[in-house]
Amino acid sequence: MSSNVFVSKHPLVQLKVAELRAASNTPRQVRELTDAIGRLLMYEVTQDLPLTTSGEKRSPVGTFEGRSLATRQALVPILRSGLSLLSAASDLLHDAEIRHLGLFREEATLMPVEYYNKLPRECAVDECLILDPMIATGGTAVAAIEMLKLWGAPKIKFVSICASRNGIEMVAKKFPDVTFYVAVVDDTLDKNGFVVPGIGDCGDRLNNTA
């Protein structure tokens, strides 16, 4: 695995991924499990955030030096399934900008198609976190990263639940300056571009539109 790919080894992440894979899950269970995995992953994603002092504060029994984040973040969910990770990310980074990108994979060619992009003219953040539960062929991930680089994002992290080995290796090698955080990597990608055993069509499972 490329050095810029971090696969979580946390036992609770692995437990919840196994639960998420189950085809018998209701949409509510899929949403709850996706959110829970996202919250666990976010602790790893944010472990390198720099802090700065924010003046003297008072506890119930004395004074202390306050802390605040030294950098500005943007959360970028890829519509539509990326929204399932937004609550987990925004609950921790509650002052982050939220910027949406709309991309879908064309079924015949498996190529990404952009349908929504409302990024402002100027990038005013220090770091962008792309949120997308799946990296299959890697085409959507490449398109999203290129859009943010063109926007001027100085640093990019990609947060995902399930990735194919070929897909994430391709994207990680293409963008060695991007860091990828995933819960699980599966070896197989079928002829339809689905990760096996994977977690199925995440958008359909989340939205009950299968």
Automatic annotation (TrEMBL):
Gene3D superfamilies reported for this sequence: 3.40.50.2020
Q: Which residues cross the membrane?
A: none
Which family is this sequence assigned to?
Answer: Belongs to the UPRTase family.
In what pathway does it function?
Pyrimidine metabolism; UMP biosynthesis via salvage pathway; UMP from uracil: step 1/1
Against SUPFAM superfamilies, the record matches this protein to: PRTase-like
**E.C. code:** 2.4.2.9
Quote the Pfam families the UniProt record gives.
UPRTase
Record-given protein name:
uracil phosphoribosyltransferase
- Give all residue intervals belonging to the Phosphoribosyltransferase domain: 7-209
Which UniProt keywords are given for this protein, alphabetically ordered? Allosteric enzyme, Glycosyltransferase, GTP-binding, Nucleotide-binding, Transferase
Q: Which cofactor does it need?
A: Mg(2+)
GO MF entry, a single one: GTP binding
Q: Which InterPro entries match?
A: PRTase-like, PRTase_dom, UPRTase/APRTase
* Keyword hit for Transferase: yes
Natural source organism: Coemansia spiralis
